[in-house]
Amino acid sequence: MSEITDIDALRRAMAENADQPEGPSRNARAEELLAAAEKLNVPLAVIEALGHQLKVYNYSSEKGKMFVPFARLLRMWDERPEDFDEYETHSLHWVFKWVSSGMLDQPHIPLASIEKWLGEMEHRYRLAGYSERAVRSAEHSVAAHVGDLARAERAYAAWLAADRDGMADCHACELHGQGWWQAERGRDAQALELWRPVLEDEYACAHEPHAALASSLVPLLRLGRLEEARANHLRGLRLVRAMESMRGAYAQHVEFCALTGNEARGLELLAERPAYFTDDGQPQSRLDFMSVVALLMDRLTGLGLGDRQVPGPAGREWTARGLAAHARAEALALAARFDERNGTTYVSERARARMEQRPLVERLPLGVRSVQPVPPSAPPVVTATAEKPDLPALLAEARRLSDNLRPGAVEAWAAVAEAAAGVDLEPRDRAELADHEAMGLGPEGTALFERAAELYAAAGDPGEALAARARAAYVRALGGGVDAALAAVSGLYDEILALYAAGGTGTRQTASVLMGRARILMRRAHEAGEGLAEGDAERDGPEAVLGEAEAAVREVLALVDGRAGEDVRLAARAAEAQAMLAELAGLRGDLKAAAGLFARGAAAFVAAGLPWFAVEYEARLASLAHHLGDMAEAERALRAALEHGGAQLEATGRAQLHLQLAELAGGRDEAVEAAQHALEAAHWADEAGESATLGAWARQQLGGFLLRQGRWAEAAEVLESALPDLTAETHGDGAIVQTQWWLGDCLSELGEHRAAAERRLQAAEIARHWPEQHDHATLAHLAGESLGQAGLAEEADRAYARAGGLWRELGNIHGLIRSLRARAWLALRAQDGLEEARALMTDAVREGEAARDTAADAESRQQLAAELGHTHRQFGDLLARSVSDDADVASTRAVFEEALSQMLRSAEAFASLGDAALHNRTGAELAAGWLEADLGRLDEAAARARAVLAAYDGRDPSETDDGDADGEAVRARRAEAEQMLQLLE
């Protein structure tokens, strides 16, 4: 740490400290700098160091410390105001507002002192000639805090009526404060309208839109504007996460989680900031935080998770129930201190109301991974007076549900089995119980199906006995025994046909056996179809198997055709048979016919009142339509599957359908709709317990669609959430590279250049092992860009050099030239780096000229001529900017001459391309004109400006071919040329 020997060194050190993260380390450094300033024996140095100390305290969790440096500053002002320069005089009056609000946050400061301070502020502002606006704003804060609502409304009106001047808070902070009051008074829509310019980044400052985004969350939820609330949470949390002084805003994000069914997300946020539980430098924000902790813990306890371990104050382990009690006690104790100071009960009332809020949304998907906590399953409560279930009623209900293929049939038969324990049932009843139990066992159900068949026979129903044995044969086929199953069902097939012909059984039982046989033959057909698809030499064998299966399916159709009537089971057989024919068409390679048959099968299920059975076939239809290039039909089928699945659709299936719809919407460039489907996919994947697999893929897609909308902060949050779960084994390394790439783009747009560089370099490291190296080169180049913007010149140069080598290997001369130009600009930053920069630009020119002269076709030559034009232009700019303010006249003229030569070569290159490069040519001409003016060649400079105006003579910017961008270029060139002429004249 260099010694501070003068005020300039002190100012550099304070500027460096101001750029450090908020927190105790920055505060301690400010204290050291004040001590160093006192040794300089320069009053202004002490004043500036005190102002710096006050500022870092204000933007930290140690706000209570700022009163001491301010009191000293005020005393110095009263004793010797001439020691304060204009800036420090303004700053002294400015921080009155910080101290005023800071006093409110400290319950040990008496209310009388705060009121006295408010009067002092008003007096000093009047003496300094400032308006009442800031004073009335401070008065409003005092009145609102103590609950004097009438005074608060008067002060609010006076605040808005007073003139804005140099002491008024910035537009962003004022609008936040005004909107906060409207929300406090229950006027959510008005609050959001006031916040709109801040939320849309029209106004911003050190703490905005951070605070407005947090404050907007609950009002948006209350108004039902859920998508905006979700977006503001993701965006706002990213802004406040690293700012120690914004505990209150951070608490609002935890509160949002507690009110939207995102309790797990809320726990993650608490774990990220353990110091927030105990930091006591600002009691008001600690009260806010502990109130929200109590709210979240009560919510978890209400969900049956009171014994779950949760993050809390250091020193012990916490359960949700224990932390709820602790946080509530802490919050109410703090509130009581404020109320004792204020002489009201208002703070405690507000704290209790906040802790007692109920969720506003059952579950609002956020897109980031946060699995809904599942409460432990409680055993059913059995009371002594509980009545024994009515077994006949349970049986009747189970039969009704299964006969009509309704949801809940499985659970109904399970209830029958439980109620029938120890009861002597009729053979028919026992047969049905065994039959339905077997259905839930899969290949393990064979023996139970056989037992059911025996019982059906004993009950005098030989047809149902044969149907049960056919089911046993089918589950045997599912276990791999297709040949044995086919042998078994063949005999059953003969028996049922004979029985049916003799009138010994009905259509339903006969159809069941025929369908069982068809299903087994379909299993064999799929095995044969694989060989058919692979082009086996013995095509007759597989085709014969497919033909036998088709005949069996059509026999089912022939049996039930026209006989279904009100019998849902027969209608379902017909629909399933249509889907089987679709499968066979697909196995034969007739995808169009398969799609049509799947559509018929799905429609038949819907017509039979069984839409949930249509989902599988609509999903397969969507896949076929996609393969056939019929995206509209694919989308229709997917939407139908979602609609028809309804509440019966499992979470995994819902996630997959939404993910496919996201892909289709993205293909139509409908990024907003695609993001909505990807968000739903991520939510349902989490619900299905597939967060790390299907959920990670959905989040990756969601992040990409948000990025396409320019929603950088939201996209970054989502992509960062997806990245830990993405694996090369499950998702492919391409997905990991794309995620890192997208994340780097987001971070770059957000100004987080070092982090962007890390992501891009990580992606490049994976891509370097790929056979095709274009992505590797692009990522290395982008990493160089981010490293340069982060101020890491040496690392950036290495990245650009790596990219340049790859571009050369790929034969991409444009990429090579651009990497050389980028390295030249980096070299110019270094001390004595001009010669290296000049050499790199010269190499870029040489590479461009060589490629242009050997180009294979006219189009390539034109593209390379344009690249050369840009290189000469940048070369000229680089030379012109290399001249320092203290350079002598002769060396300056020499460099300007060289720069002018490059500009003229640039203009010449663009001129060779005709009207297509007009704006680039005129830009180079004007740059040359400015250089000529600096060299004293005023006539030549004026001639260039007139030539540019002549080039656009008669050209209406509103009627240009390329729209607004082209029109703006016309206006900009004209304006610059006219400015040049005016200055020259």
TrEMBL record:
Listed InterPro entries: TPR-like_helical_dom_sf
Tree of life domain: Bacteria
SUPFAM superfamilies in UniProt: TPR-like
UniProt name for this protein: Tetratricopeptide repeat protein
Organism: Streptomyces azureus
